[in-house]
Amino acid sequence: MSATIDALAELATPERRQDPYPFLHWLRENDPVHRTSCGFYLLSNYEDVAYALQRQDAFAVPDEAAMWREVGTGKRSHPAVKKLVAAFAAKNHPCYARLRSAIGRDMTPARVLQLRPRILEHLGNLFDDLGPRLVAGETVDLHAEVSVPLTQYVFADRVGVPDVDRAWIADTITLMTRALASDDAQVVLEADRASNAVEDYFRARVAERRSSPRDDLITRLVEAHDGDDLLIAILWIMWMTGYESTISGIDRVVQAFLDHPALRSWCGDDQSKVQRFLDEALRHDGVVLYTPIPRIALDEVVLGDVRIPAGASVRMLIAGANRDPRVFRDPDTFDPTRDPRRMLSTGNCCGTALGRAEMAHVVTGLQQRFPTLVAAGAPAWSSASVAHRTVETLPARLA
Description:
Blueprint: H1 7-11, H2 14-18, H3 21-30, E1 33-35, E2 41-43, H4 46-54, E3 59-60, H5 64-69, H6 79-89, H7 96-105, H8 109-135, E4 140-141, H9 142-159, H10 163-181, H11 185-211, H12 217-224, H13 228-259, H14 264-267, H15 271-284, E5 295-297, E6 301-303, E7 306-308, E8 313-316, H16 318-321, H17 352-369, E9 373-375, E10 380-381, E11 391-393, E12 395-398
Parallel strand pairs: 2-8
Antiparallel strand pairs: 1-2, 3-5, 4-12, 5-8, 6-7, 9-12, 10-11
């Protein structure tokens, strides 16, 4: 394999969607600071990735101007793309940290524990529907029938979006994400129309909460800030990051449950072991191949034998770094007994505790309700985003 290979094109191939890790291993060992065909640098060894993630004095979150440089010129006039860029640029707003703290106070482990009965109730309803069909010999799609509806219910309920509106808002978020990566003009136009409807919806909900507060995250944001634009941007961020990442996280944990049946008894009812199982599932086969939002080099920096100029866009191959053998012994082996403390992620978002609670309840619930559940074929992997490796179907049946 040539060191001049285009990593982005390689990661987009069907073979690499199925299993990117042989290529990530090659890239980490042969071209660890890779200059992509799009012009940004892709880091893949653990030390470089950790440095770029942790040193914001060297690699900063992009401002709005830097974000626009990442967008193709043909898309810059589109409302959907403008909303996405404005949302992520809002992280540099002087009030963003205060609003993030307001959300964080509503997503603490103690608060999530209070939500446990509602999560378990909804998960139980989903399992009740699956049970007779599995017993009858049917193959079910755990992505469409567990990961998506559970996340949609829990996440939207916490934000403050009623049942009737959850599906179409979620579909719009997916469409907008596709539009940012797509060259299909029709996809971008559809995203424009849908995003305008969602933004109008968000503004109406913010206005409602100002006059009639409720126990939800929209109310927390309204109580913490007067202006609407920043609140709308944060609602976009929450949906674009928290919603999709939780679905994909549940998928990964469920896939690990199906792939490693011998480890189910190891977890048992021990929640500390369940948490270690989650950690290893997300390390061993991460959702994020590389960070979709870049970091910007503030000054010239040398990594390995590559000189990265000031102002350059850098992205981190989290999935490759989490299988670096210099850090993780036998990195390709799924081993939930390993120490998870050096595992890298894109960050500790406000909804991490809630997302992990859902993942843990799903794993524990599957073991209790369907202990003989097995994979019914390989997952179907999505080609919608090179940066993320997500499934479209996750088939399972009873053995």
